[in-house]
Design brief:
globular, 3 domains, 6-stranded parallel sheet, alpha/beta, two-stranded antiparallel sheet, about 10% strand, Histone, subunit A, Rossmann fold, about 325 residues, Helix Hairpins
Length: about 325
Amino acid sequence: MPLKSNTVLAITGPTASGKTALSIAIAMHDSIHAEIISADSRQLFKGLDIGTAKPTSKELDAVPHHFIDICEPDESYNAGLFAKQGHAIITSLLEQQIVPIVVGGSGLYVQALCEGFFDMSPDFEQELILAREEVQRIYETLGKDALFEALRLVDPQSCEEYSDKNPRRIMRALEFHKATGKRFSEEKSAMMTYPSFQTKYVMIEHEREELYERINDRCDAMWDGMLAETQNMLDRGINPKAQSLDTVGYSQAISFLNGKIDQKTAIEQMKQATRNYAKRQITWSKRIEGLNILKGNIDEMALQAMKILSADA
């Protein structure tokens, strides 16, 4: 099966949907030589394996992975740095005719790597995250027309460029303005760095009830192990407010360990927070232009993804 050169496959979508299993199935296909780029902002950290649903040792041995366990739990990291380092790795892989498979639910990381990133101080990352959440709320509650009008008020030039009202582009421009106070149309040539490759996006789709059941089951299964990981981090003196622990699951575990909530409440809050996160991930993914939806068992979806990657897709 001939594959398009200079093309990356990105597997996006909600937590617990099966992204890791699909990426392994694709990478191990006989007709492809692939490596995996983890676009998960928490799998970067060492010692946080269960709560981040990190690939198993067997999976890591089966396929080369990048951006797993590259940071100590008391370090910080950001999407801009990920995009710069990821772009270098992807460029190297493509030169070797190795297909990069980007896998992860951290939308800001996927967007920075595959669509371009604001080459600005890491100090703006928190502002950008907050801006993205605000803009996404507008999109979810009022729709793309409201986004377009909000952008027109602060950056009419961008509106002229995005007259098709593509929500991804409108949201990026509006996020930039809210984070920096500057017009994206005036700053993008100086502050945006764009990738040299093209990306094919896929998302695994489940019925909502099935997805929520998968999430609830996974939360139950990971609780004890994640609790032990959390206790180990606190025993090591890691700040509970560190970036690595500011994560669904670990946050609830810390509250439980500090006696603020009981275990049943902690687990229920973890499940609810994870379901809410999954809804945001789905919203983010579905605004991708050209997104391909995958359904079926792992082997069937791997074949679908391979066809999308092929030269005649």
